[in-house]
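JOB MANIFEST
job_type = single_chain_structure
chain_count = 1
residues = 138
[input]
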Amino acid sequence: MPSIFTRIIGGEIPCHRLFENELVIAFLDVNPLSPGHALVVPKEEMAELHMLSPESAAALGAAVAHVAGAIMKATGAAAYNILQNNGALAHQEVMHVHFHIIPKYQDGRGLALTWKPCAIDHTAAAELATRVQRQLGA
Protein backbone atom coordinates (compact mmCIF):
# COMPACT_ATOMS: atom_id res chain seq x y z
CA MET A 1 0.00 0.00 0.00
CA PRO A 2 1.53 3.34 -0.96
CA SER A 3 2.12 5.87 1.81
CA ILE A 4 -0.01 8.99 2.07
CA PHE A 5 3.03 10.91 0.77
CA THR A 6 3.26 8.69 -2.32
CA ARG A 7 -0.43 9.40 -2.90
CA ILE A 8 0.22 13.15 -2.57
CA ILE A 9 3.18 12.88 -4.98
CA GLY A 10 0.94 11.04 -7.43
CA GLY A 11 -1.73 13.76 -7.25
CA GLU A 12 -4.29 11.44 -5.66
CA ILE A 13 -4.47 13.63 -2.54
CA PRO A 14 -4.31 17.44 -2.84
CA CYS A 15 -1.73 19.52 -1.00
CA HIS A 16 -0.51 23.09 -0.65
CA ARG A 17 2.63 22.54 -2.73
CA LEU A 18 5.61 24.75 -1.99
CA PHE A 19 8.35 23.19 -4.11
CA GLU A 20 8.83 20.23 -6.42
CA ASN A 21 11.52 18.79 -8.66
CA GLU A 22 12.14 15.31 -10.10
CA LEU A 23 13.28 13.87 -6.72
CA VAL A 24 11.57 15.89 -3.97
CA ILE A 25 8.29 17.56 -3.07
CA ALA A 26 7.55 20.07 -0.28
CA PHE A 27 4.11 21.06 0.97
CA LEU A 28 2.40 22.56 4.00
CA ASP A 29 1.54 20.17 6.83
CA VAL A 30 -2.24 19.70 7.22
CA ASN A 31 -1.83 19.57 11.02
CA PRO A 32 0.71 22.35 11.57
CA LEU A 33 2.43 23.18 14.83
CA SER A 34 2.78 26.76 13.59
CA PRO A 35 2.09 28.79 10.43
CA GLY A 36 4.49 27.67 7.69
CA HIS A 37 5.00 24.14 9.08
CA ALA A 38 6.02 22.18 6.01
CA LEU A 39 7.06 18.68 5.00
CA VAL A 40 9.87 17.94 2.57
CA VAL A 41 9.54 14.43 1.12
CA PRO A 42 11.63 12.43 -1.32
CA LYS A 43 9.70 10.88 -4.19
CA GLU A 44 11.62 7.67 -3.55
CA GLU A 45 9.45 5.78 -1.06
CA MET A 46 11.72 4.49 1.69
CA ALA A 47 10.85 4.17 5.36
CA GLU A 48 14.08 5.51 6.87
CA LEU A 49 16.68 8.08 5.90
CA HIS A 50 19.61 5.66 5.64
CA MET A 51 17.66 3.59 3.07
CA LEU A 52 17.52 6.40 0.48
CA SER A 53 19.68 6.40 -2.61
CA PRO A 54 22.55 8.91 -2.46
CA GLU A 55 20.80 10.97 -5.17
CA SER A 56 17.54 11.21 -3.24
CA ALA A 57 19.32 11.96 0.02
CA ALA A 58 21.34 14.77 -1.57
CA ALA A 59 18.29 16.27 -3.27
CA LEU A 60 16.35 16.05 -0.01
CA GLY A 61 19.06 17.88 1.94
CA ALA A 62 19.27 20.63 -0.67
CA ALA A 63 15.49 21.02 -0.75
CA VAL A 64 15.21 21.25 3.05
CA ALA A 65 17.67 24.16 3.12
CA HIS A 66 16.05 25.88 0.13
CA VAL A 67 12.49 25.58 1.44
CA ALA A 68 13.46 26.54 5.02
CA GLY A 69 14.95 29.80 3.78
CA ALA A 70 11.83 30.62 1.78
CA ILE A 71 9.55 29.83 4.73
CA MET A 72 11.57 32.09 7.02
CA LYS A 73 11.32 34.99 4.57
CA ALA A 74 7.62 34.40 3.87
CA THR A 75 6.53 34.03 7.51
CA GLY A 76 8.88 36.35 9.36
CA ALA A 77 9.33 33.62 11.98
CA ALA A 78 12.10 34.16 14.55
CA ALA A 79 13.67 30.70 14.10
CA TYR A 80 12.84 27.18 12.98
CA ASN A 81 13.33 23.52 13.83
CA ILE A 82 14.08 20.70 11.42
CA LEU A 83 12.63 17.39 12.62
CA GLN A 84 13.12 13.97 11.05
CA ASN A 85 12.14 10.68 12.72
CA ASN A 86 13.16 7.14 11.75
CA GLY A 87 11.05 4.26 13.01
CA ALA A 88 7.95 4.01 15.16
CA LEU A 89 9.97 4.05 18.38
CA ALA A 90 11.34 7.45 17.27
CA HIS A 91 7.76 8.74 16.74
CA GLN A 92 7.65 8.25 12.96
CA GLU A 93 4.00 7.91 11.97
CA VAL A 94 4.22 7.85 8.16
CA MET A 95 6.75 5.23 7.08
CA HIS A 96 8.05 7.33 4.19
CA VAL A 97 11.09 9.53 4.86
CA HIS A 98 10.16 13.15 5.48
CA PHE A 99 11.56 16.26 7.12
CA HIS A 100 9.44 18.74 9.04
CA ILE A 101 10.34 22.43 8.82
CA ILE A 102 8.65 24.01 11.84
CA PRO A 103 8.81 27.79 12.19
CA LYS A 104 9.22 29.11 15.74
CA TYR A 105 7.63 32.42 16.69
CA GLN A 106 8.34 34.89 19.51
CA ASP A 107 4.93 34.03 21.03
CA GLY A 108 6.01 30.40 21.49
CA ARG A 109 4.22 28.82 18.53
CA GLY A 110 6.24 25.97 17.03
CA LEU A 111 7.92 22.81 18.26
CA ALA A 112 8.28 22.27 22.04
CA LEU A 113 11.13 20.00 23.10
CA THR A 114 12.25 18.24 26.24
CA TRP A 115 15.93 17.41 26.05
CA LYS A 116 17.38 15.07 28.67
CA PRO A 117 21.15 14.80 28.14
CA CYS A 118 23.33 12.50 30.22
CA ALA A 119 27.08 12.31 30.85
CA ILE A 120 29.15 10.50 28.25
CA ASP A 121 31.03 7.32 29.11
CA HIS A 122 34.28 7.97 27.23
CA THR A 123 35.37 4.31 27.20
CA ALA A 124 32.05 3.16 25.75
CA ALA A 125 32.05 6.12 23.33
CA ALA A 126 35.52 5.20 22.01
CA GLU A 127 34.40 1.60 21.45
CA LEU A 128 31.22 2.75 19.70
CA ALA A 129 33.15 5.19 17.50
CA THR A 130 35.43 2.34 16.41
CA ARG A 131 32.45 0.10 15.53
CA VAL A 132 30.77 2.90 13.53
CA GLN A 133 34.04 3.71 11.72
CA ARG A 134 34.31 0.04 10.70
CA GLN A 135 30.77 0.19 9.27
CA LEU A 136 31.73 3.32 7.33
CA GLY A 137 34.82 1.61 5.93
CA ALA A 138 37.23 3.98 7.68
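[summary]
The mean pLDDT is 96.
Residues 4-112 form a domain with the HIT family, subunit A fold (CATH 3.30.428.10).
exit_status = 0
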